[in-house]
Amino acid sequence: MKRTLIKDARIINEGKNFIGSVVIEGETIAEILKEGQTPSLPCHETIDARASLCLLPGIIDDHVHFREPGLTHKADMASESKAAAAGGITSFMDMPNVKPQTTTIEALEDKFERAQKESLVNYSFYFGATADNIPMMKHLDRQKVCGIKLFMGSSTGNMLLDNMNALEILFEESPLLIAAHCEDQSIIEKNTAKAKERYGNDLDVSLHPVIRDEEACYASSALAIRLAKKHHARLHILHISTGKELELLEDKPLEEKRITAEACVAHLLFAREDYATLGTRIKCNPAIKGTSDREALRNALATNKIDVIGTDHAPHLLAEKEGNALTAASGMPMIQFSLVAMMELVKENVLSIEQMVEKMCHAPARLFNIEKRGFIRKGYQADLVLVDPNKTWTLTKDLILSKCGWNPLEGRTFHAQVTKTFVNGNIVFDNGELNSNNKGQALKFNRPA
After folding, report:
1. Which among 42, 92, 279, 311 has the fewest CB atoms less than 10 Å away?
2. What are the residues facing 48 on neighbouring strands?
3. Tell me, what DSSP letter sits at residue 207?
4. Nearest alpha-carbon partner for 184 in 159, 228, 157, 217
5. What is the tens place of the pLDDT at every residue in 148-166?
6. Do the beta carbons of residue 149 and residue 129 sit within 8 Å?
């Protein structure tokens, strides 16, 4: 098997930060060497990191919308997995609100088959919960499917599940982790009516966080947590967007919790003031809230209240983003630049690089019990990313690989850059060049069958 030496990198792994080397043999990590140590066997290729490049485990993004099947005019698995690879993301978990929705076993298997043919990086898919398909869940492959997606707020088609009887059954019977989008629909509808009464039907996008406010998020998250505790369910609350919701979460190690939470890159970067310049480009659900909420989320990264950082990567064409607080599409493409954006927070001392690796690599792997990924360990899959932490560059449109062709971070200057991404030992991204010949693998989860 081919042996590749990544020589003299600054390895960031499991809370440690040191100069060392890694040997890749075939798909896996064969050796981890301290500074000055040499490989036990000759290597066919040497990549010199010059003691200046950071070597991280590949990023695991627990929350993406790659839009395939049915919405491929704006994104597909091939295009978005390229964007992922360019951003250092080596594994993703994709959401079910596509066409047809991933609410049947057949639709789920179809997505796995598509990914096997098209995705450059590793993958798994959520099964979407509806009021009618809960009995199907016992037939899901627990070692292959990452979780159950629950929309407790506005969603596509019939995937809004706000019937209390159905919710009780889901939390009692779900065989897998429940990943929940928490917004209270009745509060959103009440806020919408009030806003229309005051401002008319053409509501400026700056009113989006007024319509989808703190109360809507908190009430729904609190309900989900009550149900999870009542039924001893495994709950993962997606895209926490308010400081108040943090009060519901426990600050203790991941292994001691059955209720965990995700913060998304957009809510860590943007605040309500940014609607003035970015408008509907940063419209997403839950809404971007105030500066105090953003700061509370950032502060929580240094604690165990926020367990993972995801992207909620959700591409739309710019034409679909036109409109107002009610009519413009919600969501934005974030996956390609999520790692470098979080490296900016490292530069600003919001969190350490070790904490960033914990939230983007280690914790997702532990939270979902992913087999042999998320860490730089001997025998683990060689999902790795080399990052230049001292490279200054500006994001321009020509660098964007997402099919939709735009990004809300356009024009921003970054001070770190992904140079190489390894997926299962293969280089899929190398200083701007993609290798589309190598495909990712389905993630495996260490759970009882």
Report:
1. 42
2. 7
3. G
4. 217
5. 999 986 544 556 677 888 8
6. yes
